[in-house]
Design goal:
about 600 residues; alpha+beta; Beta-galactosidase, Chain A, domain 5; 18 helices; about 30% helix; elongated
Length: about 600
């Protein structure tokens, strides 16, 4: 993605443009006006007498507003333009642009001002790849306003463009003004662009969720920013650059503030611009942790919002499990039609433990024990998830295994290689940004060492090959829950395919974990082995849960497994009824344990 784009934002509503303020979206240049995970403008181009404008200068007074100073044609080192344009833009709930055309000559100027507009209504999460719309694009002119729209069944989005200046010639391609400016005079108009999330009756959904909520504008955003800066700790020192840097950091933190529809009066940090300008789990937790000495309210808002969306059921499509904290939440077309699972999506292993860490750190910094008591149910549910679902191997570690094999997130592996290289002693500043350069550095380090490297739960050969040493005496063991093709032809690779446990091996595993109880009831053991499909993971889960419930007999365990239905496709084996095992474990909770949030606030049995 181009890094020289001009950006202004208000939460998850933002505008990306080129240096002159024009928006011309391409897969490699994701310009546009975005709101709630949809691009509402993909084209916004200003011309004077058919000529494009070039930038002379730019002023960025705030994160939500920008001014472009432009001239027609190509600029030169000695510009003697008879006409210039000031383009003042802000985003505050909607997109507003004030155009001012100045005549610097001694003669009147006849000028045609044209603003060309269009929208592809691209979902944000695929804006970089491009996509053919599955619905119907439409455009119409109504009451002097240009309406650009998209509809797919009941899903509707619409962009409404209007102007304060009459007469504007509005057609389906944009707005045109035929103006006359007197010598040394100027002409001004303001363009309003609203992105609407429409219900079937044509009303904006957001207007009905919070009918008493005032619409945002740039003056209100400015007041909010000044209030934010006024409540933060003040830094006074004799080195002015440090004071300026500290203030800018506070402004940048305020720029990330995102108020979700569920909590319109609270702001938590969004994940980042542009692809992650949404509610996420990991990013607001880290940002809130780092900002605790300066803005502890961010942490409280993050705890509140993430607790509201905490997992409550087993849902393979969204990778949801009781007590799990979400990874991200999206509003766009792809999640509305369940082509993507992010509404919300829970595919992450670290966010749930981090939620508990944030709650503890918040109390440590603020002394606010009331907030800890308020979110006690959510914290206990998160701790229960760590024990019951995060520790899927029964070894005391939190693992990641997606349930949704089609559209769920895979293990990121080499994508997280910066931390891998850091663990090998490479300073963060010395880690290259490009993937192949990282792989080369990794191999050069291993060439001088003898190491055993374990790569667990690999997806395919392409994921493994970057992590193989080039030369030297290191050994790599790569495990996978599926057969990996392409390994046999690689030099030094020795594929070893492990089948299911035999019945005798499965019985030995249970006997080793359950002791004399397994030997005393062979029929129940046989039933459990059959229900677990002779998979070691399934057998280990059942054994661990059975040990934690000493009053439960093995025939009762086999009976409860028989009552549970469904399969956990994420483990990739149709012989094992693993979802039944998880469901059986969840139903074993006592009636007093589920909390007010609808989750499972409990800890490991006996702890």
């Amino acid at each position: 993605m181009k890094t020289d784009l001009v950006r202004i934002l208000d939460g998850n509503i933002f505008v990306l443009s080129d240096g002159s303020g024009d928006l011309e979206a391409k897969p490699t240049v994701p310009c546009g006006f975005y709101s709630y995970d949809t691009r509402f403008l993909s084209l916004w181009r200003l011309t004077l007498n058919g000529e494009r404008l070039s930038p002379l200068a730019r002023d960025d007074p705030s994160y939500f507003e920008v001014r472009f100073f432009l001239v027609p044609g190509e600029p030169t080192h000695y510009v003697d333009a008879k006409v210039s344009v000031i383009r003042e833009r802000s985003v505050a709930g909607s997109f507003e642009e004030q155009l001012t055309v100045l005549n610097h000559s001694r003669e009147p100027a006849e000028i045609t001002v044209h603003v060309e507009a269009d929208s592809d209504f691209m979902p944000l999460i695929v804006a970089a790849q491009g996509r053919t719309p599955k619905g119907r694009l439409y455009r119409r002119v109504e009451n002097g306003r240009l309406h650009l729209g998209y509809q797919r069944d009941a899903f509707r989005r619409e962009t409404v463009i209007s102007s304060t200046t009459e007469p504007a010639q509005v057609d389906e391609r944009g707005l045109t003004y035929q103006i006359r400016i007197e010598p040394h005079g100027q002409w001004t108009t303001t363009l309003h662009v609203r992105g609407l999330v429409l219900r079937p009756d044509g009303e904006d959904v957001r207007e009905h969720l919070h009918p008493g909520r005032r619409r945002r504008d740039r003056f209100r955003l400015e007041r909010n920013l000044q209030q934010w800066l006024g409540t933060a700790p003040q830094l006074n020192c004799d080195w002015e650059p440090l004071e300026r840097t500290y203030r800018q950091c506070l402004v940048d933190l305020a720029a990330l503030g995102y108020s979700p529809l569920t909590l319109p009066a609270e702001a938590l940090p969004a994940a980042g611009l542009p692809w992650s300008a949404t509610l996420a789990g990991r990013e607001p937790i880290f940002a809130s942790l780092q900002a605790l000495p300066f803005a502890p309210d961010l942490a409280r808002a993050a705890l509140h919002m993430l607790g509201i969306d905490q997992g409550a059921v087993l849902d393979d499509f969204r990778d949801e499990e009781p007590g799990k904290i979400l990874r991200e939440f999206r509003y766009g077309e792809l999640v509305a039609f369940e082509e993507r699972p992010q509404a919300p999506y829970y595919g992450a292993a670290d966010v749930t433990p981090l939620y508990v860490v944030l709650l503890d750190e918040y109390e440590r910094w603020t002394g606010d024990a009331d907030t800890v008591r308020e979110f006690e149910d959510e914290a206990r549910a998160a701790l229960h998830w760590i024990d019951e679902y995060g520790d899927i191997m029964g070894d005391g570690y939190v693992w990641y295994q997606r349930r949704n094999e089609q559209t769920g997130l895979e293990n990121q592996c080499w994508k997280e290689s910066r931390g891998f290289l850091w663990s090998l002693g490479v300073a963060p500043a010395a880690i290259p940004a490009e993937l192949h350069a990282q792989a080369g550095l990794y191999r050069s380090i291993l060439a001088e060492r003898r190491m055993l490297i374990l790569l667990d739960n690999c997806r395919d050969w392409d994921q493994i090959r970057h992590l193989l040493p080039g030369t030297g005496g290191s050994l790599v063991i790569a495990t996978s829950r599926r057969r990996i093709t392409g390994v046999a032809g690689q030099a030094g690779a020795h594929p070893l395919h492990l089948d299911l446990l035999t019945h005798a091996e499965a019985r030995e595993l249970l006997t080793r974990r359950l002791g004399d109880e397994a030997a005393a009831d062979p029929a129940a053991v046989d039933e459990i082995i059959a229900r677990c499909g002779r998979l070691p993971l399934a057998l280990a889960l059942v054994a661990t849960r059975s040990v934690g419930r000493p009053g439960l007999s093995l025939p009762a365990v086999a009976g409860e497994l028989a009552e549970a239905d469904g399969r956990l496709a994420g483990f990739g084996d149709t012989h094992a009824d693993l979802e039944a095992i998880f469901s059986w474990s969840y139903r074993a909770l006592t009636p007093e344990q589920p909390g007010s949030s609808g989750c499972c606030p409990c800890t490991r049995a006996g702890s």
